[in-house]
Protein 1
Amino acid sequence: MAGLDNLYREVIMEHYKNPRNKGLVDDENYKLFRIKNPSCGDDITIQTYVKDGIIKDCRQMGHGCSISMASASILTEMMIDKPVEEAKKVVEAYLNMVANKDYNKKIDLEEAQVFSGVRNFPARIKCASIAWVAFKDTLE
Ligand code: ZN
């Protein structure tokens, strides 16, 4: 995408080509949530396993554009081993960042920082958000 920092674009393409934690598991301990983004054809399912308030595993499956696929991949990598309460704060900060709203800059968005440029492309905000919104719903 033109306008995104080169390094950020590289990280996004790397996750797009080598998605982390891809593929769902058949285990009733996991909670699953699926979201589609008709405007872009993105279709993402997130699966999360929480035990004792800690996210023990986070899986992703689906298809779509490079932004949506990379954001799902980065999400799963970041969330594994995080306490649920911390994960919710990270998700909130991330969703506000990509939507160009105020967010708590003390919260470490780690590799998800690469999506900060999406705010300049309103049509892609949903692409960068759906995996994270689906993940949030698995925690409800
Ligand atoms: Zn998309």
Protein 2
Amino acid sequence: MKPIFKIILAVLIIAGLILTLKPNNNEESSVNIYSSRKESLIKPLLEKFTEETGIQVNLVTGSGDGLLTRLQNEGENSPADLFLTVDAGALHRAKSASLFQPVDSRVLNANVPAHLQDADQQWFGLSMRARTIFYSNERVEPSELSTYMDLADEKWRNRICIRSSDNLYNQSLVASLIAHHGEAATEEWARGLVANFAREPVGGDRDQIHAVASGQCDIAIANTYYFGGMTASDEAANQETVSKVNVFWPSQSEQGVHVNVSGIGLLQHASNPDEAIQLMEFLVSEESQAWYAEANQEYPVRPGTDRSEILTSWGDFEADTLSMSVLGENNAAAVRLMNRAGWR
Ligand code: FE
């Protein structure tokens, strides 16, 4: 071989070596997450995670049901490692569709209370919301209020606003009442509640709270973060509503206030499970917990984490410690019961 060819060969071998090695150096580790939460409620945290670990995070946002269908259609070809969504009922649906795999993490177990995670460790709560009573501070004395069950009393005839029974939040509330009071008593309650509706269910949680302020009803049942968002908002309509409506914590001498979670699970076909678990653990760190909860006026799941100023202003309450798993398990019974009770 001529010297020139030897040199060319040597150059080619070295170039080949560099090319084979380079992809490994360049190949950044990454994690892919499907999320039904608004981008602004999670993106800054994901960026912080990348900054700290060098792991890239690819975020796909969409509706909870849409992403669940997408995950089912993609099957083992899905690029997703993690699924983040709201309501224990929705997390239970994903679990029932065999989308998740269990995660045994010391960090997750130490920071997410047992009742706020799946009994089989297939998903973990990240933030908590309460579904509570909002009342008119002009037409209702807080001393008249007591428990969820009391809302079926005829003293509340034509005075209650709540959204429809196809809403998962209401289904989870009823699922919790079934667990505490049994199906028969809960059905009787639902009939009484429906009889007390001020109007046919219409709109979302915010609409029910606004309806209390505008005088269409005296009481609404809604999730706390909607009222938190109104309180933080400088829009006149929201400020007007906040000035006329107060928060009440029901069932304090019974099971406590019904709570639910936003949560996350590691997907069955995750191709980056180590990075995904690292991200799950990052999301329950004290700093992440405080930020993530405050971004949507929710309660942190990690005990001892600071709450937002607005949440603190509503005072402390006893929360129901029923396992979130039960909300999913009782979902079908809750839906049937609400239908029988005529809850549209
Ligand atoms: Fe919501």
